[in-house]
Amino acid sequence: MASAAIFSSLRRRRSPSLDAFLAPVDLSNAALLDTLRAISTDLLLSFSGKDKSPPYFHVKNSRSLIRKIQVISVLLDAFRDVGFSNISTTVFLCLKELYLLLLQEISTLLDVFPLSEIHLSEDVKEQVELLRKTSRKSKLFIDKNDDLLRLKLYSFLNEFENGRMPDRNQLYSFFVEKLGICNVKSYRDEIEFLEEQIVNHDGDIEPTASVLNGFVALMRYCRFLLFRFEDEDGELGKWKRRTTKKGLITREIADTFITIPKDFCCPISLDLMQDPVIVSTGQTYERAAIARWMEEGHSTCPKTGQMLVHTKLVPNRALRNLILQWCMANGIPYDPPENADYSSESAVSALPSKAAMEATKATAGLLVEHLANGTPRAQTVAAREIRLLAKTGRENRACIAEAGAIPLLKGLLSSSDACAQENSVTAMLNLSIYDKNKSRIMDVEGCLGTIVGVLRYGHTTEARENAAATLFSLSAVHDYKKQIAQESGAVEALAGLLREGTARGKKDAVTALFNLSTHTENCARMIESGAITALVVALGCEGVSEEAAGALALIVRQPIGAEAVAKEEMAVAGLTGMMRCAATERVLKAPALASLLQSLLFTGTKRARRKAASLARVFQRCENASLHFGGLGVGYAFAGNSAEPRDTSFAGDVGMPVSISVPVL
């Protein structure tokens, strides 16, 4: 990538990530050799094909590397005539190291490569020996022009740092003419590559993550400054075909449904924790959720029921850093609390510089300008770009909102163009992740009603689901829960999505309904809207049953809620089935259970044998149904409440097959 390569330092750079250069561990000798040959062939075709233009940077290094790969390809081709049965372990290890090879490491590898143990032709050995000698003398060459490009790139950031806007003509000359980044797609590729470098960044590698953030912000600004909003090469249509693709970079929460590890969710809100804290019993909760629990007069731990000896909340730094890493790996937006008294070193190092902030503000200004005054097509492109820009970073979301995007996005929510509506509601969802933007959205007259309108009548399934997710995000603020529930059609639409939506749609709907249920004054609305019936039905749905049960538990605290739930025919059966499932799961995980049952079946009393046989049959039915237990959200086919077995999988599950022969009693 052009912008990433020109800031290479004289010292060797590390590989971008472990996953990107992971040596194969399960391949046979032949399979490993085939993989290496394919890789070397692809590299040569990519960089030395007739239709390939020369690189814009590191020209000498690139040509040197190509020549070395050509010799290595000769060596790999020669292996086809060698039998693998007599190849030593050392050769195989060297082949695996070759898989990880980067530039100057070629010399080190060839020094230890056991050529004498392989029956190769003399001409191949001569070429490899010549490569070994030349590699020892080779050094990474820094071309003067490459260094000038690197300095020029930093100078652009410096101008933003000092509050000045770089000259448009200089930006065009630098990126288009000198680096060859000459269309919208190439800019998108550069931005995605740089974002990957930020995710995989090591703290001691130059440039720092904050500088990389500056490069990303600069690239975004240039993309709109130089190419405006004409949606070159039909990119908008390509986006519509890409909606189901799972990229390597960050993916907004509305783009895919990912099962969150149970330990990362607050036991009270059941949502991913942003600010986990530890109470006196050692349990971890979301700070806002446990604080509200205490404010309501409770003096016990919600999870264990133990008395809280004090109300001090201790930040769980270790868990928060694990959540941050998991979110970055899965591309889920994650905003740490604004007033947190701690932060991970990686998060601190990735804070955007002043240059990045200024470039982002300039980009947001361009986007909002076209959102307000552009053609309908330009408005759609602007909405999509705001959506992408708001995927990550509190600062990005703040800049966009401060530039005045929210009222303009609200206007696009009612667009007859499905693409414009879907992009605008997803942009609204991403903006709402930042707490201050929640109030900005709710303060725009008619904005809440328009979001509910998309939930009810949206042109696409994705738009309706993202509208539900937006309501869930907004309902995280306690004061907005009643306002959302009172909005005409909101609860009814959420209940409908819970009954008939996709797996992701049901998840969005049930979490929103759960949040609304935490407000005591919403109970009557939940009853009259039919939400209770939808929640009871959801008790039997994999992936949402736990949240549905949590919402019902909140509703039955009110007398009218308890009465309404009691009238539902399937409520008792559904809750009983979940309890049976949870109890069976705990018993099934008991150590030495299989041997204990086996012993009772043959040595116990008649009554003990009968009970043991009954318990063994339950476990056998579970095993035959291929159930993996992962909490209350698991299907409970064995309880007689489902017509077909469910296959569930949760992070951290342990499958424990129990095989016991049951005698006829």
Automatic annotation (TrEMBL):
Name a single GO biological process. protein ubiquitination
Q: In which pathway does it act?
A: Protein modification; protein ubiquitination
Which Pfam families does the annotation name?
A: ARM_PUB, U-box
Q: What is its EC number?
A: 2.3.2.27
- ARM-type repeats, residues: 489-531
The reply on keyword Repeat is yes
Taxonomically, the superkingdom here is Eukaryota
Matching InterPro entries = ARM-like, ARM-type_fold, ARM_PUB, Armadillo, RING-Ubox_PUB, Ubox_domain, Znf_RING/FYVE/PHD
Q: Which CDD domains match?
A: RING-Ubox_PUB (cd16664)
Catalyses: S-ubiquitinyl-[E2 ubiquitin-conjugating enzyme]-L-cysteine + [acceptor protein]-L-lysine = [E2 ubiquitin-conjugating enzyme]-L-cysteine + N(6)-ubiquitinyl-[acceptor protein]-L-lysine
Could you tell me which SMART domains the record lists for this protein? ARM, Ubox
Record GO terms (molecular function): ubiquitin protein ligase activity
The U-box domain is annotated at 259-333
This one is known as RING-type E3 ubiquitin transferase
UniProt source species: Sesamum angustifolium
